Amino acid sequence: MKLAKTLLLAIGLACAPAIAQAQDAPQQAATVAAEAKPVAAAPAAADEVLAPKAGIGMPTDRVIGLQAQFSPNGRRALWMHDAVLMPIMVAICVLVLGLLLWCIVRFRRSANPVPSKTSHNTAIEVIWTLVPVLILVGIAIPSISLLAAQFKPAGKDAVTVKAIGNQWYWTYQYPDHGGFEVVSNMLEDQPKAGAKQRTDADGPRLLAVDNRMVIPVGQEIRLLTTSNDVIHSFAMPSFWVKLDAIPGRVNELAFKAEKEGVYFGQCSELCGARHAYMPIAIEVVSAEKFKAWVAAKGGKMPGRQTPHRPRPPLPLPPPRLPAFLPPPAANPARVPTDD
Ligand SMILES: [Cu+2]
Questions:
Q1: Which regions are flagged for Pro residues bias (predicted)?
Q2: pTM, whole model, 2 decimals?
Q3: Are 257 and 239 in contact (CB under 8 A)?
Q4: Domains detected in the chain
Q5: Which of 58, 116, 159, 321 is the most exposed, having the fewest neighbouring CB atoms within 10 Å of its CB?
Q6: What angle do CA 265, 266, 267 make, to 5 degrees?
Q7: Phi and psi of 208, rounded to 5°?
Q8: Could you tell me the distance, in angstroms and rounded to a whole number, from the CA of residue 43 to the centre of ligand 1?
């Protein structure tokens, strides 16, 4: 009886995460269904402030799992997590737990009073060496190609944004667009006198900022990060972007936002007392809106670059004759003839 109780307890503990996940699944589905519902009505067009949408680009209450992805690498990484890693981990856990339970029951003292003295089994030893190797190779192939895709350098038409970490806010520079800079501070619910107060149109509490980083939709972004003081980390979960911002060094990562909207992230390196209060907000807009925003900030769109064409070869200089010979025209006798 005691053994049965212990077994039931062990099975219950082992299955608890799976049950919790199953219970959360309908909530997750409900959240996805509520995706289209805006958090707040968009403000007047003159403000040009895009309102965030619940469930997009921000964490959702009572949901486990990764945020929905809006970049090609993000979708690929999410697939890697959901379709490759999680099933393999669950299968291994279930197999090991099952074997353990089977051994406990099948080979207990009362059922198996004379234990086997077997110490080697070549077939089993080959299997338990080869199978893990094959599993690891199976994981390594998509994993390494994903890693390579994540660190593929941006193309020459990419929009460069330099994110600079400061204690405790971000500044965004646009070197290709006239080099203007945007200073981005968190909006507070109870701001100091004269400062702007956060509203739901700006974003969730602790994630809304006064000036967002703005990028065009569907265009490759060359993200450069550095820092003015200590190590920060630029993290934007919906784009699968996380890049350290290190003083005296510039890191680079390319990504592409596939859908217009507002996306929120945070500094992900413990950088001091107000580390939790330097959020990141990226506003993804159409190419026209991006152009208008750049103009409003006093910047300019980069000039159209002419495509690279190979130079025509330079004409060869006339052959140089030794100084003791007269010029060819003055020496017709030296020209070979047919007769
Ligand atoms: Cu920081």
A1: 312-330
A2: 0.71
A3: yes
A4: 159-296 (2.60.40.420)
A5: 116
A6: 140
A7: -75, 145
A8: 30
